[in-house]
Amino acid sequence: MSAPTLLPACPTCNGPRLLGHPLGLVFWHDPACALGVSEDARQAADAELRGAGAVRRPSTLSEKHLLRAAGVNVFDDVETEVQWVSNGARRRTWRDCHGDPAVVDAADPA
Ligand SMILES: [Zn+2]
Questions:
Q1: Cα(65) to centroid(ligand 1), Å
Q2: What is the pTM of this model?
């Protein structure tokens, strides 16, 4: 019997990261999780910018915490690129410390 694969979890509520999610970096937060609340607030703020198409903005502290929990090494001044794949579905991408697209999902080609 092989050991189970341990997924990186939210550092605040220990909620699992959803691997293979089409929107990339997605965690299943406890409703009271401060990082989850912050992520929800940022998603609402991003929705206000939806008409502008793809948007690049400074990453939030929560995004940086979650990226690092997912094993992605990012600079403190990393930026988030937000794209809307449908009316309500936001996909975010980042660059790692080498300037390469950050691989936040093991389902992505490395
Ligand atoms: Zn959480």
A1: 10
A2: 0.85
